Task: structure prediction
Amino acid sequence: MKKRGSRHFDYPSGHTSWGTSVALVLAELRPDRADAILERGREYGNSRVICGAHSVSAVEAGRQAAAAIVAVLHGSSQFRGDLEAARRELGPTG
Result:
């Protein structure tokens, strides 16, 4: 892995945080496809290590950040309303 200078922001992986957050929300909306969605979210984070953009610990920290982000979002009535609207738009699943 290449050496990072002090201006490189490796930790936590923002790409992993984003990808995992999206996967968590989509899996909640489509429980019938949750396994595949969550696996894709994991692979997105893993790809950051494979391409040398982040360390394993940065990806793990990104996943932890995502879990915290989604937990905080669930505390928002606006988010819960948006989630419910998305469920209605998707219709019956699985």
Observations:
- The chain has four helices and no strands.
- Residues 56-74 form the longest helix (19 residues).
